[in-house]
Write a structure and sequence with these properties.
Blueprint (H helix, E strand, L loop, with lengths): L8 H30 L4 H32 L23 H19 L3 H24 L3
Length: 146
């Protein structure tokens, strides 16, 4: 009943690359957060995390541009895909479980706050967000068949 319309392969690859990059960017941020939490006063670690957060913002902006284009093109208020970071209606990001997504969002928000102003409060929030994401991953791993 529903099927994909034919598209040029290179255009499709470009759209999917953003989707794949989004997950990769979040994984990179989670890794950099661990380093930042160990050495919050290290400027190079803070700059690396800040840079990766900017990359994620760029990916999200690309998704927003696609959503706005798609909404205007079909003259609807909502695009076909509601996945954050999606650049097509067929985003593989739709497979991310909502608890994981919620903890990823919390991690990114906490990381942005801590990079801007590394206080005891912002670092504590970042540590909690990092621990929460690790817990979600641990629980997901326990449910997977061995």
């Amino acid at each position: 009943m529903f099927r994909r319309r034919g598209r040029r392969q290179d255009a499709e690859d470009q759209e999917l690359e953003v989707d794949f990059h989004l997950e990769s960017d979040i994984e990179s941020i989670a890794t950099l957060v661990l380093s930042f939490l160990q050495r919050p006063d290290d400027e190079s670690t803070r700059m690396a995390l800040s840079s990766e957060l900017e990359v994620l913002d760029d990916q999200t902006a690309s998704a927003d541009s696609y959503s706005n284009f798609k909404a205007a093109w079909v003259k609807l208020a909502m695009p076909g895909s509601s996945v954050i970071g999606a650049t097509s209606d067929y985003s593989p990001g739709e497979d991310v479980p909502s608890p994981e997504f919620a903890t990823q969002v919390a991690l990114v928000k906490a990381a942005k706050n801590a990079v801007r102003n590394a206080t005891t409060e912002t670092l504590g929030a970042l540590q909690k967000a990092s621990d929460d994401l690790a817990d979600v991953h641990r629980r997901a791993g326990e449910r997977e068949p061995q």
